[in-house]
Structure formats: C-alpha cells, structure tokens
Amino acid sequence: MKNLEKKWALVTGSSRGIGQQIALGLARRNCNVIVHGRTLSNTEETIQLLKDLDVKVHSVSGDLATEAGITSVIEGVKSGPGYVDILYNNAAIMNTWKEVWQIPMDQWQKVFQVNLFTVVQLCNAFVPGMIERKFGRVINLTSGIQDTPHLAPYGVSKAAIDKYTKDLAAELKETNVLVNHVDPGWLKTDMGGENAENEVETVLPGALVPALLEDNGPSGRFFAAQDFKELD
Ligand SMILES: NC(=O)c1ccc[n+]([C@@H]2O[C@H](COP(=O)([O-])OP(=O)(O)OC[C@H]3O[C@@H](n4cnc5c(N)ncnc54)[C@H](OP(=O)(O)O)[C@@H]3O)[C@@H](O)[C@H]2O)c1
C-alpha cells in the first residue's frame, strides 16, 4: 500500500456524507486533506472531526454548479498547499424524481455541470501538475444505479463519468497518474436516504483502495467499496 504521508488530497463534497468519511479515512492514513463544501461554514464539522489527527488540513469552498464556484475551489487550493496529489471527485447532485419525459432541461444541465463538467474542469486544473510531479491519483465516484429513468440525468451523468475515467486513464498511461472509479454502494446519507442498505462508514476502507495503489498500479479500473467492508 502506498504511504500517503505528506500527500495532499482534495475531496470535493467532504462537508458531509461519503466525502466526509473519505476525508477521515485519508487523514487516518496520514494524508493531508483539503476539505470542500459549498460554503466554508459547511466544512466546519469535518474540520472538527479532523482536528485530533496528525495531518495538515485546508478548506476550500464553492458551488460546483457555477463557474465562480469552480474557480473559487481552484484558487483556494492554489492559495493553500498549491497543488493536489489525490483528487477525489466525490461531490454530486441528483435531479428531482420525475417521469423521464417531464424532467426539465435545466435539471439535466445542472446535474451534468456538477457531476461531469466540474470533474473535467478540476482534472484539467490539477492533473497536469500530477504528471509533472510523476505522482497522482484521481478517483471518480460513480454509482450502481440501474433502470431508474426518473433519475436519468443523475444515472446518465454517472455513465459519462465511467467513460471519462477510462479515457483519462488511456491518456495517462505510464505517467503514474492513476485514474479509477469507485461505487460506494447504497449508503445512508442525505443523498442515499434513510432506507439505504449500508451505514455511511462502510464506504471505508474500500473507497481508499484506489488512493493506496502502489506506483504504476491499475488505472481505468472499477472498484466497489462494499467489496472491502469486512477488511477494516
Ligand atoms: N449515498 C449513496 O447511496 C450513493 C450511491 C452511489 C453513489 N453515490 C455517490 O457518492 C458521492 C457522495 O454522495 P453522498 O451520498 O455523500 O451525497 P450527499 O450526502 O448529498 O453529500 C453531497 C456532498 O456534495 C456537496 N455538494 C452538493 N451539491 C454541491 C454543489 N452544487 N457544489 C459543491 N458541492 C456540492 C455537499 O456540500 P454541502 O454540504 O456544502 O452542501 C456535500 O458535501 C456522489 O458522487 C454520489 O453520486 C452515493
């Protein structure tokens, strides 16, 4: 397993839910963490939880549905550690449950902006630096959602994330920048709801596996976090 000491990880959407667990899991493995939420005050709970761990913590904010928000995140990283070694593209939104014919175009656009286009923009901002430093891990959160047309914008955006992960992995062959995607499973979070099968903590340690891969390890691979839940 890769030693993450002194590495910096940006976890988008780490103010709560799965991203918060990933931030905690990384910090317990001595990785410095950049916490992100839509506002800085939203990041405070995670910052408190990280307080007793022996890592550096920086926070950034921005609504990833907007250009200004994406710029704020990128500038926030630059004014803090200045770079990212591990990028968890975790933040995502769902559309409102509606018959597929009736889902308004602005919902399709907003979901695609947050769940796909923002991921592309953050990769464009941070991956070239990873190539230069000859180390990087990009981990895109996907979903096992199937046959749910009422949530088509969300499901289709995750299918696009899967394709983008593979395209990026092909581009980054032999750079030691590994790009993988992980399905966290159905978890009790604000998004997953209270009827979800799994507690949010069960995303660990599986969600960390793509960050812990040794140099020049697998890229373009799919990981199911729930496959690893007995290991912690
Ligand atoms: N939960 C599940 O069962 C499940 C299943 C499969 C896949 N996933 C995936 O796992 C990831 C995390 O899901 P989750 O269940 O933890 O979600 P969640 O509980 O809804 O948390 C969402 C996180 O994303 C941030 N966020 C939401 N909208 C944003 C925006 N417009 N701009 C910036 N940040 C925004 C939130 O920040 P604020 O606190 O500031 O709002 C929060 O930190 C997502 O990619 C999701 O698709 C989840």
Description:
With about 230 residues, this protein is α/β, with parallel strands linked by helices. It contains 5 helices and 7 strands, in the order E-H-E-H-E-H-E-H-E-H-E-E. The chain has helices at about 15-30, 45-50, 65-80, 105-135, 150-170, and strands at about 10, 30-35, 55-60, 85-90, 135-140, 175-185, 220-225. Helix 4 links the parallel strand 4 and strand 5 (about 135-140). The mean pLDDT is about 100. The structure holds NADP nicotinamide-adenine-dinucleotide phosphate (NAP). NADP nicotinamide-adenine-dinucleotide phosphate binds near residues 65 and 184.
SSE map:
Elements: E1 8-11, H1 17-28, E2 32-37, H2 44-50, E3 57-61, H3 67-78, E4 86-89, H4 105-133, E5 136-141, H5 152-171, E6 177-183, E7 222-224
Parallel strand pairs: 1-2, 1-4, 2-3, 4-5, 5-6, 6-7
Bound molecules: NADP nicotinamide-adenine-dinucleotide phosphate.
NADP nicotinamide-adenine-dinucleotide phosphate is lined by residues 13, 15-19, 37-38, 42, 63-65, 90-93, 114, 141, 143, 184, 186-187, 189-192, 196.
